[in-house]
Amino acid sequence: MRNSLHFLKTNLRWLGVGFLLTFASAFGQTWFISLFAGEIKTVYGLSDGAWGSLYTLATLASAALLFWRGSLADTVPLSRLAPVMTLLFAGAALMMATGQSVWLLGVTVFLLRFCGQGMFTHMAMTAMGRWFDATRGRAVAIANLGHPASEITIPLLVVLLIAGIGWRPTWVGVALVLMLAIAPILWGALRNDRTPQGMAHSDSMTGLQNRHWTRADALRHWLFPALLPVLLTPGFIGTVVFFHQVHIADVKGWSLAQMAPGYSAFATATVASSFLAGWAADRFGAHRLLPVLLVPMGLGVALIGPAENVVLWYVALGVIGMTQGTASALWGVLFPAVYGTRHLGAIRSLGTTIMVFSTAIGPGITGVLIDAGVDFPAQTLAMGLWCLTLAAGCIWVARRLDRELA
User: Fold this and answer.
1) Label partner for 277 (CA 20 to 30 A): which of 106, 180, 217, 271?
2) Domain span at 35
3) Which of 139, 393, 405, 206 is nearest to 287 (CA)?
4) Vertex 372 angle, CA 355 and 37, to 5°
5) Under the phi-then-psi rule, with left for phi > 0, alpha for psi from -120 to 50, and beta for the rest, what region is 307?
6) Residue finishing a domain among 139, 170, 193
């Protein structure tokens, strides 16, 4: 306990940067933008299918740009990159508040997704991986607290603001928060642009074979292709479960109000598992968590299919949250340990691009199946089997990686 308090006290400034970045990423996350979906569809005359297609295309474009420019986290000091990205983020929010055409709406969603889900999370995790070594797992877990913190505190406030002042003025408020609060705080916290004394090794940390890996090197190595389906799965399943909650409510005969406590179960499990996984990654090695990563998600998503009582929905989301929390800690620790820190931004941008891509294609694929007569609860059984199959394959991945790291 004393060591943990000393760790927090010594590195509060740097951990706070990570937390603030993940918290502010909320303004570009699916759950936040979906709060305005009704108003957006009405104003622009979009059907559910048209809005979903626009959202998917914008997200895929943001993933492509992140893959191309994610290496900025390696070449541009965070003290400059973070404030500039925040101002771009604020500009996108103003575009949402003032735009009048569908094509501009697409550009706006693209920028919101690129800045929020993409670069803000990418910058936070790259910084934690580069700044911390022996305590990297704890640092990643603390920085990731910004995600559940925003999910708990922001939605109700935004709903009230939309009802009180309208949806466009609410986006103006988002832009002001980013420009007048987030950007100055990041600039002040990062003005010296240095790492915490005694806690980081900056670019000196090497990975496998005692060298710094480039993104091209990582793609040629056996590990990244082996991890590809594991990287895709949590984002895919986590997104579609929330995206189709109205459909699930219709199929099960539940109300959205009855299902609402599931969010608390999800957030609580995400936080708890993130801290536990961060400690375990520091203590035993992140690669040893791979075989257990998808087991909770597989069991949780499969539980949705046969569930008749809404309480099982709470259990399912809680168990799914265990995988989401573990994943956030695992990748933040595993990538620098395996590939080193010199090109960490480029390599992490590849992983983040894959995860963003999975969130884009998930609603489309599952929606087509629903239209074809396969309801989402029926699909969850196949998703559960997929997770457990990948978990079995990860046993081999972890064993081989264990030998190479040794």
Assistant:
1) 217
2) 12-193
3) 405
4) 55
5) beta
6) 193
pLDDT class for 290, splitting at 50, 70, 90? very high
Residue type, 282: D
Distance CA 311, CA 302 (A): 15
Q: Which residue has the tokens 């239209």?
A: 371
**Distance in angstroms (rounded) separating the CA atoms of residues 19 and 320:** 22
Share of the chain above pLDDT 90, in %: 35
What percent of the chain has pLDDT above 70?
94
Q: Give domain status of residue 4, yes or no.
A: no
Q: In whole angstroms, what is the distance from residue 276 CA to residue 124 CA? A: 19
CATH of the domain at 212: 1.20.1250.20
Q: Give the side-chain half-sphere CA count within 13 A for 102.
A: 13
Give the CA angle between residues 157, 19, 295 to the nearest 5°: 90
Q: What residues contact residue 3 under an 8 Å CB cut-off, 6+ apart?
A: none
Residues 118 and 219 in one domain: no
Mean pLDDT (the chain) is 85
> Smallest Cα–Cα separation from 319: which of 294, 343, 344, 339?
294
Q: How many domains does the chain have?
A: 2
Q: Structure tokens of 91?
A: 């500009």
**Residue 130 within any structural domain of the chain:** yes
- Please tell me the distance from the alpha carbon of residue 212 to that of residue 341, in angstroms, as a whole number: 7
H or E element in which residue 352 lies = helix 344-371
Answer for the pair 378, 251: CB distance below 8 angstroms, yes or no: no
Alpha-carbon separation of residue 316 from 242, 320, 327, 365, 374 (angstroms): 12, 6, 17, 21, 20
CB 349 within 8 A of CB 121: no
- Mean pLDDT value of segment 349-365: 81
154 touches 26 (CB < 8 A): yes
Q: Are 235 and 387 in contact (CB under 8 A)?
A: no
Tell me how far apart the alpha carbons of residues 336 and 287 are, in angstroms, rounded to a whole number. Answer: 12
Q: How confident is the model at residue 193 (pLDDT cuts 50, 70, 90)?
A: low
Q: Is the pLDDT of residue 196 over 50?
A: no
